[in-house]
């Protein structure tokens, strides 16, 4: 999910996305640990998406617009 589409969501929706991605990351790590995960690059993608979600949440909480400037 790209940052542009994340910025259209509300803080509550972003927090729900964060929870969903954290759960997915947990499941991917579990699958990797027991040797069932075929696409290990998905772990990296989910971690980056979590960072994007948290960045947009922080921007919205601080009242910052796109680009991070007031």
From TrEMBL:
Family, per entry: Belongs to the universal ribosomal protein uL29 family.
Biological processes, Gene Ontology terms: translation
Molecular function (Gene Ontology), one example: structural constituent of ribosome
UniProt-listed Gene3D superfamilies: 1.10.287.310
Transmembrane spans: none
InterPro entries associated with the record: Ribosomal_protein_uL29 (IPR050063), Ribosomal_uL29 (IPR001854), Ribosomal_uL29_CS (IPR018254), Ribosomal_uL29_sf (IPR036049)
Keywords: Ribonucleoprotein, Ribosomal protein
Keyword Cytoplasm included in the entry's annotation: no
Gene Ontology cellular-component annotations: cytosolic large ribosomal subunit
NCBIfam families referenced in this protein's UniProt entry, alphabetically: L29
PROSITE patterns reported in the protein's UniProt record: RIBOSOMAL_L29 (PS00579)
Name of the protein this chain belongs to: Large ribosomal subunit protein uL29
Keyword presence, Oxidoreductase: no
CDD domains membership: Ribosomal_L29_HIP
Name of the coding gene: rpmC
